[in-house]
Protein 1
Amino acid sequence: MQWGQIKTLFILCFLILDVFLVYQFINKTEQAQLVLLPDTSIEEQLEAEDIQLQNLPNDTPKKTRIYADRYDFEEEDQEKLAERENQKSSIRENGKILTSVFNEPIEIDLESDKSKISSIVKEEIIFGDEYEYWGYNEKWNVLIFFQLHEDNPIYFNESGVVLVSLNEEKTGLIGYLQTRLVDVKSTGKEQDLIKPIQAISTLFDKNQIYSRDTVTEFDIGYYTLVPLQEGGNGVQFFSPTWNIHVNEERNYFVNGLDGQYIAKEEDEFLERMNKKKTELEQPVRGGES
């Protein structure tokens, strides 16, 4: 082998060695940073990202998991609605769903405050005090109401919701779909929920909170542990959940007992409910009133 070839081989070997050493150095540096990270408190990390916390609760309440069954709407419920003389109702899916259509659109102003919108809708449905107004979804053109348990909402559950449809002009209510949970019971002893700052830490680790965000509010509700299977009528279980408001425009959910992040699927939820509503165009029980 000629000397020139040997020299070239040595140069290539040294280059490969240099690349390997650089890689090792970078890898060890990153590992060192990861080791140091736990020593940095979540408060310090939030401060470094200029993330503000407002209305941080001082006390952490005790809650239990709960379970509930689906309510069967009856003709008596339709009779109560018939007294209003402004809507025609139907009982569907073996009593699990009540749908109703207003004879004339009921005037609504989406720019009104939530309490005003809530009061208008609750006047037109049965068991109205059991539900809380969540908000308006523009894509599906519906108002969303979640059922309450001890003043805490049960989020995005197909068996405890009222969805109110608006006309194309978005100025009037034209009908609604309603489901209801009953026989709500606790599963055991009350437990301390994770602290709000722990829930924030979960969102931070999941990259759901960004630099210069402001966490504006902390609420407590319930989220379904295991979604009800298609056509299922069994008991459902719910876990207490932190609902965290960011910039007064985004909401995130964290399981209040185990600290797991819960991905909110409002669009998927409404798509399923809209599909169900479409499939139930023809009454299956109780006729119309």
Protein 2
Amino acid sequence: MGDYSKALESYEKARKIYEEALPPNHPNLATSYNNIGGVYKNTGDYSKALEFYEKTHKIYEKALPPIHPLLATSNNNIGQVYDSMGNYSKALEFYEKSHQIMEMALPPTHVSLAISYSNIGQVHKNMGDYLQALEFYDKAHTILEQGLPQNHPHLASSYNNIGQVYNNMGDYSKALEFYEKAHQIYEEALPPNHSSLAAFYNNIGSVYNEMGDYSKALELFEKSYKILEETLPSNHSNLAFPYNWLGRVYRSMKDYTRALEYFEKALAIRQQTLPETHPNRAITYSDIGDVHRLM
């Protein structure tokens, strides 16, 4: 995990100097705001991240031509924050603005276009539009297969994304097929405590849970949690995911006391880190309600 507090301290010092020494629409000031926004995004403080990313974007809109790649990046960053906050319509709006610029500025096989397709696919997945998600993920995967070596982590992420959609559609054998492809690359290319491995363990664990292999699911969710605990700040919203899934496994095993314990841990994190209207808070409330009903 990066030392975000020290990074923020240095970035704030730079910002103060830039604000005193430079005109308000200077590109270096935009870069400074962008750096600060990135730290807040990585620590899960999405409202602060949005505040600084929007300051960046206003400068870029005044100072740069409308198809400049930095404007695409800025739109993408704002889209990522809205996606994390659960505001999927706004996320899609900014991802599509970013994509339009990239389509004009980049060759059709550029890796950045693939990442853009993946971002749009992710929003459709989060909104439950799985066929649309699969369409965009497939476009991304085609570009990545053409432009990257077979063991590149971006390809693993792409396999993982497609696996998630099949998992959500209930096609567990297809989901496992894509997750295993992702896993082979991740194990070769990433250190054992990388956050992408945590996401993978979480995703494949959910498949085993749905298939009724609860011991395997528990093993994978615990691996996910161990990585996230080591690499994320203690109040990061992503820590809620393994808690939530551990709760679901114990609920499926009819161990309702332990299920409730994990769901309440997930809820405590989400209450601290997510907006009140975020769908993940609703999911956890529903999970807790199910346990009380079943007890």
Protein 3
Amino acid sequence: MTNSPTSRHPHSVSANRHRLLRRIGTFVSYAGLSLVALLFLFPFFWMVSNAVRSNAEVMAVPVRIFPEEYQWGNFVEALVSLPFGVFLLNSLVVACGVTAIVIVVSCLSAYAFARLRFPGQEGLLLTYLSTLMIPQVMLVIPLFLVVSKLGWINTYHGMILPVAFSSFGTFLLRQFILGIPKDLDEAAMMDGASRLRILVTVIVPLAMPAIGLLALFTFIAQWKSFLWPLIATSGVEKATLPLGLTLFQTQQGTAWNYIMAGATISMVPGVILAIVLQRVIYRGIAVSSGFGGR
């Protein structure tokens, strides 16, 4: 005996209601995420919007969301008004130098804490990680005194070496390495590989997602760093981009449109690096969550 239409009706109404509620929930979720995304993107939009205005329009009241007249020449003026190429080169040297050293030191120390066993290991790790709680401002004066005694003021190594060690990088890579099976290390040891070779040929390739994430965080942090370059340099020849942009502030006033244009240009390397590393970072998130497959 088959079911009559009336007997199937309550189930069909319940299914339709459940489907409707699910669609409403999906719409609300996407609408909320879109609103949050707009809130995060608005400062960048406002920066670009002010970069193509006249300085008078930037300070005009009431505020206009879009410029009355687009002045794309502000980007050219920002590049030629100051030695922008020098600032860009200095920022690249400092950011890339710090990133390279942080990755090497973090890989070595993270492997030691994750794989080696030695007396006082846990206490040393805790002490190492406790440095994360020390504000950078408290370290500025001691670092400056050391750099000054060494004669490293206004030099690349004076800007790079004091900030080229990261407890966060060690912790991040250690946690990732702990998730790599030790059987791979033991197999490599049976083939006669040393600890250093195991790190380079086995651990590092598998830890590339975490290394890519660390590289991105470190590069962006140093690219936008202002306090330490301000302390460790004097003059324009070693100034980085954040310091160079302050030269648009003079006694005659502040060229906010040029500052915004320069800040927009300075974002390009970080955006490019994020795009290049996004596949590596996504693979790390996918593998760690168990949804990435191979």
Protein 4
Amino acid sequence: MNRRCSSIKKIISHEKQINKKIRRIAMKKRTLSVVLGICLLAAAMVSGCEKKGVEQSPKSDSSKQEEEQGSTDDKAEGSAKSASDVTVRYICLTKGIPYFDPIIEGMKDSVEKAGATFQDTAPDTSDATAQIPLIEAAIQDKVDVICISPSDPDALCATFDKARDAGIIVLCVNDDVTGNEDRRDGAVMSTDYDVLGKENFEAFAESMNYEGKFVALSSKTGTPFQENQMQIYRDMMAEDEKYAKMEFVDVLYGDDEATKSLTEAEAAIQKYPELKGIISPTTVGIVAAA
């Protein structure tokens, strides 16, 4: 048992090092992407652009363009705000995850440099509906932009609609409401998550010598990013014979809580005597299991 635990810990440690390198690159891209995204949104609010005009496609009829441009200009004159009147509020996935620190830092710097007000908040848990009261509070406070790392691709959409109906720009950050893209105004992704998932799984598989049983330690059921990452693992195993001797035996959910993640990892080691590896698409799980 001790030898097996040591082997698993070595694989988790190796995965942790891989993730650290990948995340360092991703964090730099993430900070830059978020800064650019927030700057564009702040600029749109300051100039008085219409909320949904950002994603409108150019029209082929030049006369219609001129008419619409005139209408937009009239609205802009009446709705323009100064930077000091713009408030951007970021709603994180949950409290206490260092992964999101660069996002918050990038937003805060860019928004405040533009002269606008930046606020951030987060629920105590990563439950699918935990962010809803925070979105509703932002609507009540009449913020101009809600940036959010969504906990679920479906559960938040009705509240997004309320925010947008109130004239608030809704921007998904670091993750998206996949399948419901029309329910938000835009999305800022930190990196190509498909590439990230493939590189991470390949390195993990190599550390297992492409054989043996493994589990995934995720955050919670339905979280878009983690679910997508695990589907990538499954697809790679199905499409390439070099993974034929690997067996994906279970998915564990630690709710992005360190104690629960550790408990789930320990239980998996007991449940699966031949377990060789634990892969985690969440930084909380990696740290807890290691």
